[in-house]
């Protein structure tokens, strides 16, 4: 009975949602919570920007994606997605145990272990995305996409919000171990579900070359790079900005946790409805224009210095949670349409690898710009880019959809 429920479309979506939440707890901890902790301890913004080196395995996972996908999809029989996720989950928990012992005071060893954890998590993600595309019928792809984006925001809210509250109240080690425990619990539904079995031989050999030979995939890669520049670069220093305007770690945890979770989930669901009604291209355009407006107002607030703190927090939430959720539902809908079901793990990895490369480069550069030009200039540059490049995104989305 339990196995039957987990193999139903709803069971598959819920199990996948658990994996995406777990992965995003790590992302929220590393990219949102950790910069705030480091800033509270007086670390310079350009050094905090080094946190984005943790994205390196996500950017490079395409190097080993084909090997993982070929192992995951043997010539016949059941897939091996669960074995991959189980091993990577164990390595993640062991890594987090080491992180709890090291602590943020020892910055370079901590960074090295977090990069190793990201290697394990990014490898599991190859299997997770491939499993989503191959097991969900086309009519259920929207639910899978909702699990992906909604799970990402839920996990990010836990990793950036609840984690900071736990750090403030119980200390670094206890907070990290609590995060590890949550990740183990979230993995269990997927690990307990039955593996899909191919009815015949799998004749297609997954490869990176096959992916890059497809015109649709090449157009999708360009779209992913441009869109991530416009949506993510302007919010990568949001945690340090809130610290500088006077919020403490617990307050930021509450803002990112409860506020980010509520706004992110609502906008993810709204984005799914809008994609169904308007199409992904128009929703991406709408999100870019809204992002430009929000970042422009943040630039004005940072330059004036007299805007009420609550207004700044509201703008930060709208930009980093609400508008981001709206836009990335549409972008991932494009990814699902582009990926070939015969090697979905590779295709998704390639598209998300472009996302990670651009995010990492932007995060490193964002720290430098914010440190040397100030937050007002940082937000203004990001706002202008988002508005001016919106027509380019519309053109690229059209080409990615129509490419043969």
TrEMBL record:
It is a multi-pass membrane protein. One of its GO terms (molecular function) is transmembrane transporter activity. SUPFAM superfamilies: MFS general substrate transporter. Keywords: Membrane, Transmembrane, Transmembrane helix, Transport. Gene3D superfamilies: MFS general substrate transporter like domains (1.20.1250.20). It is found in: Membrane. It comes from the Bacteria. Its main location: membrane. One of its GO terms (cellular component) is membrane. The chain crosses the membrane at residues 12-38, 44-64, 84-102, 108-128, 149-170, 176-201, 221-243, 249-271, 283-305, 311-333, 345-369, 375-397. PANTHER family: MAJOR FACILITATOR SUPERFAMILY DOMAIN-CONTAINING PROTEIN 3, SOLUTE CARRIER FAMILY 33 ACETYL-COA TRANSPORTER -RELATED. Belongs to the major facilitator superfamily. This is MFS transporter. It comes from Bosea vaviloviae.
């Amino acid at each position: 009975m339990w196995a039957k429920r987990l193999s139903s479309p709803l069971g598959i979506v819920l199990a996948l949602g658990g994996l995406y939440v777990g992965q995003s707890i790590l992302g929220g901890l590393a990219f949102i919570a950790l910069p705030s902790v480091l800033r509270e301890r007086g670390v310079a913004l350009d050094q905090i920007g080094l946190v984005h080196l943790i994205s390196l395995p996500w950017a490079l996972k395409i190097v080993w994606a084909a090997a993982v996908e070929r192992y995951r999809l043997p010539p016949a029989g059941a897939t091996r997605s669960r074995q991959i996720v189980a091993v990577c989950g164990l390595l993640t928990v062991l890594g987090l145990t080491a992180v709890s012992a090291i602590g943020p005071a020892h910055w370079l060893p901590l960074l090295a272990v977090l990069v190793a954890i990201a290697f394990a998590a990014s490898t599991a993600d190859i299997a997770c995305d491939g499993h989503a595309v191959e097991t969900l019928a086309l009519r259920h792809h929207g639910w899978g996409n909702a699990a992906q984006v909604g799970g990402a925001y839920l996990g990010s809210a836990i990793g950036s919000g609840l984690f900071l509250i736990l750090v403030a109240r119980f200390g670094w080690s206890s907070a990290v171990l609590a995060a590890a425990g949550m990740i183990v619990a979230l993995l269990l539904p997927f690990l307990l579900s039955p593996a899909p079995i191919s009815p015949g031989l799998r004749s297609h050999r997954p490869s990176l070359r096959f992916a890059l030979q497809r015109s649709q995939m090449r157009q999708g890669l360009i779209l992913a790079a441009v869109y991530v520049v416009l949506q993510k670069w302007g919010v990568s220093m949001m945690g340090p900005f809130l610290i500088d305007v006077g919020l403490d770690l617990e307050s930021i945890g509450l803002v990112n946790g409860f506020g980010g979770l509520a706004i992110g989930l609502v906008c993810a669901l709204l984005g799914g409805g809008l994609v169904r009604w308007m199409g992904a291209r128009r929703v991406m355009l709408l999100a870019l224009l809204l992002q430009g407006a929000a970042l422009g107002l943040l630039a004005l607030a940072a330059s004036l210095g007299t805007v009420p703190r609550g207004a700044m927090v509201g703008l930060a939430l709208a930009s980093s949670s609400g508008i981001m959720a709206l836009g990335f539902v549409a972008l991932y809908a494009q990814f699902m349409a582009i990926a070939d079901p015969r090697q979905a793990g590779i295709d998704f990895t390639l598209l998300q690898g472009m996302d990670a490369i651009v995010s990492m480069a932007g995060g490193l550069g964002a720290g430098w710009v914010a440190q040397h030009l100030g937050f007002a200039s940082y937000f203004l540059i990001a706002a202008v880019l988002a508005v001016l490049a919106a027509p380019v995104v519309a053109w690229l989305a059209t080409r990615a959809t129509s490419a043969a």
